[in-house]
Design brief:
The chain is mainly beta. It has helices at residues 13-19, 73-76, and strands spanning 21-27, 33-41, 47-53, 56-61, 66-70. The protein has a 3-stranded antiparallel β-sheet, covered by helices on one side.
C-alpha cells in the first residue's frame, strides 16, 4: 500500500524555502529594535508544507506561520 504524505508539497522544501522570506523586527548593534522590519530567509528544515496555486507559493512552517512568495513562470505551470 502506498504511503500518503501528511504534509503535501508541490515543491521540495529547500526550493520552497528559497522563494519565501519572513519579516522580523530589525535590531541595532546593541540588540534594541529599530522600529523597522527586515526580510530573513526561511530554512528548508522549517518548511512543513507548501502549495503552488498559479504563480503564488504558500509555505506553512513547522511553527505554524503561513508565508507567501512568487514562483518563477517555469515552475508555475504545474
Amino acid at each position: 500500500m502506498e504511503q500518503v504524505s501528511q504534509n503535501p508539497m508541490d515543491l521540495p522544501a529547500a526550493e520552497a524555502a528559497k522563494l519565501v522570506k519572513r519579516l522580523v523586527p530589525a535590531v541595532d548593534k546593541d540588540g534594541k529594535p529599530t522600529g523597522k522590519d527586515e526580510e530573513v530567509a526561511v530554512k528548508a528544515a522549517e518548511v512543513f508544507a507548501n502549495r503552488v496555486r498559479g504563480d503564488v507559493l504558500t509555505v506553512v512552517t513547522i511553527d505554524g506561520q503561513k508565508l507567501t512568495g512568487r514562483v518563477p513562470p517555469a515552475k508555475a505551470e504545474k
